Amino acid sequence: MFKLLFFITIIAIVYFMFFSKRKPFPPKKQEKAMEEAMIPCDTCGIYVQAKETLMSSGKHYCCSQCLEKRS
Ligand SMILES: [Zn+2]
Questions:
Q1: What pLDDT score was predicted for residue 24?
Q2: What is the pTM of this model?
């Protein structure tokens, strides 16, 4: 009987570790998706990766030329 309880405890610990390890993954994936999201340039409309856009007064631009044209 104690052996069975021991095994159940081990399984429970393994199960918990498995889930606690897997839990942080979805938010990280979402963060990566946000970084790789394509945003259109406000001047020329070209889609640029969100992390590579230039932001000015809440608008995104693909390059400094586009930024200068609008501002
Ligand atoms: Zn542009």
A1: 59
A2: 0.49
